[in-house]
Structure formats: structure tokens, C-alpha cells
Amino acid sequence: MTATDPALTALAQGWCALSLLHGRIEAHIERALQSGHDLSVREYSLLDVLSRQHSDEGGHLQMKQVADAVVLSQSATTRLVTRLEDRGLLSRYLCPTDRRGIYTDVTEAGLTLLNEARPTNDKALRQALDEAATNPELAPLVRAVETLRIPA
Fold it and tell me: How far is CA 98 from CA 49, 58, 90, 93, in A?
């Protein structure tokens, strides 16, 4: 295979299209969340992930799991948690069974903000996908996103 191999070129073009779709969606949602709720996409994602925790066995996420879920490094996730904790949207506490572990929960204020922001996020996502679907290069990716079923 060479750098000009048609299979590699098609693969690279597909990756560029996927990256473009992601960027457009994220930018659209970012603007909507910032203007309507003073939240970034990352902050919204973190609140959403943490809101799905439960108190049963294995229901709380460790920081590495949280970082993986929001696609950030552990250090960036810790900084994000600190910012949201400073805003009163999250709280941290020691794991009752392992004093080395720290858990993070969404506060009532955080849940309220998340519930207010969820319709904005969903509407912005729908708008961004509808707009991208008009682009012939992005339309197949939009259809793939719309038909993808991943358990929550």
C-alpha cells in the first residue's frame, strides 16, 4: 500500500467526514448550552454521566471510568469536576469501603440544571443532524447515527 492507495484515500476521507460531522454537532450544541444554560458540552456530558450513577453495588464510577465516559484525560476530568463542584453542581466524598477512592455525585442544583439543559441539548443535536443531512457527504453518517442503538 502506498500513500496514494485508493483504499487509504477513501478511509481518510471517511474519517475526515466523521470528524467534520462531530465538530459541527459539538459546536452547535456548545452554542446552545452556553447561551441557554451557561454549560459547555463537556460539563453537560459530565453531569449526564454522573446523574446515571446509582447506590447499588458497582453503581458509582471511579474517576477513570468517568474520564473514559466523557472522553477526557483523568487530569482534565478532575479539573472539570472541580469547576462544577465550585459552582455547587457536584459534590465529592470518600468511598465508604475504600478510603482511597473518591466518588462524585450530582447535587440537587446540578440535577435541576441538567434537567433544564437536556431539552436544549436534544433540540440542538436534532438541528445539527438535520442540517448535516443536507450535505451529501455527511448524510450517510447522519443516517448511521440515527439508527445506532446503544443501551444507556
Answer: 22, 13, 20, 11
